[in-house]
Amino acid sequence: MLSISSLAYWLGAFVSVASIWFSIVAIQANHAFGPLWIIASAIAWLIGGYRLLGLLKARRATRLRETVQAIAPAGFMAEVQIADDAGRRYVGIDPSAKTVVVIDAANGIRKVMPLSQVSEWETQEDPSRNYQRVIVRFSDFQYPSISIPILTRHIERIASQLRVAIG
Question: Domain of life, per the record (predicted)?
Answer without folding.
Answer: Bacteria
